Fold:
Amino acid sequence: MRKAIVESSAYNELQGSPRSSFMRGAVEMLPLCVSVIPWGILAGSMAIQAGLTFWQSVGMSAIVFAGAAQLVTLGLTMTGASVLTIIVSVFFITSQHFIYGLTLREFVSCLKTKLRLPIGFLLTDELFALSETKNKRTELTPGYMIGAGLTFYLSWNIFSLMGIVMASSVPDLDKYHLDYSIVATFITIVVPMIKKISTLAGVGISLVLSMILSYCQVEGAIVLAGLTGMFSSVAISAMIKEKQ
Structure:
């Protein structure tokens, strides 16, 4: 009872200082913003290489706001893939957002629409990973989520704009291997979240299978590897009866 009162008091205190929560979220998101500088530059430059105009490239980052989806869409467009292939690929690549939404459902369900909508739009892998480090009853607030998400949104668009500008001024930008930042960023996000044997097994299976399928030039290798890893993780968790 006493613990619940303390938690409620702390929650009300955080709720009473939205500006403080907003700034705390913005500051704590900065390290992840720095890590995606090459990724944003790559997305912006690829948009120009794919044939988009300056404003179309800017609009893609501002409206779509999904790094993996943008890169996959641009890559498939450059290879002449069909619209259906692009839609299906992007759907599976971003399907983890269903899980993010369900995980945060208890937190956002009691919020007003004017708060739920911006949080939903700003919800990325980075924001979800950051929110998972917080106690949803005493530390996580709408101000914190919007502050962190908006900081990442503005950073992504600034870095994308840099890539758009650099695409026409820096020759052979693709030779700098900026795409490695994608791998580095996801390693930073995924590793701290591996706390169970089933999760570790799922990540390992996805990693190995993605390399094998990519080597064999199987279409949709990453999607197939990811789905196999997820199903394997669930199956292993059920077999060894892991505690949730």
Q: What stands out?
A: Residues 2-177 form one domain.
